[in-house]
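Posting here for the record, re: zinc ion.
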Amino acid sequence: MVTPIVGAGTAEARWRDWPAVTTWPSLATPPLTTPPLVVAPHPDDEILGVGGLLALLGRAEVVAVTDGEASHPDSTVHTRAELATIRQGETRRALARLGLPAAPVHRLAHPDGGIDEAALTVALRQRLTPGRWCLATWRGDGHPDHEAVGRAAAAACAATGARLLEYPIWTWHWAAPGDDRVPWQRARRVDLPAAAQHAKAAAIAEFTSQIDDLGPAPGDAAILPPHVLTRFARPFEVVFA
Ligand SMILES: [Zn+2]
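Prediction output follows.
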């Protein structure tokens, strides 16, 4: 299911007012013997989706599938190569803000917009072991790269016995409360203490190439304007178990 991501999307207030959100079970977060493997289609997805959870867990190993070089295809300010370099640096600094300055980041450099799902499945299988957590974008998230990552992670977890936890990103934009395309019955809440909320906010603020306009031209407009960012400033995160 690839859903067009257009317009202002579902207002955060509608999610906040949906009673079901408060009834989802909490995700148990026991001490992990191995860091969770966090799979990011684009630099920033890992922070937006599960940055607070990573701060809570205190460890992470990141797979950066693409460098996000296609975020501004019509930019008059940055080339694709420049954006790739900028966004890698933003991820590095964001992880430091989460208290994870030494978290390994494995850069796979798949083309932004053209992930090789079979190759990604192999790469993830090599890093996953029985019971290890794998945090990946949800298979139904509506963005082709996010869905490819979700499918590859699901296949790799099924093959290795790793534990798949899928995080939605664009679902909050195109879906509405109660939307029957979304597996709400699998939803687990991660309630974030104030320190984790603050760390996540500081981490998100590092993605200036996505939050700020690169320049006045339409092709340089922010990818993550305030109405999108507010969805990731909640005091909790949601994963599909
Ligand atoms: Zn993304």
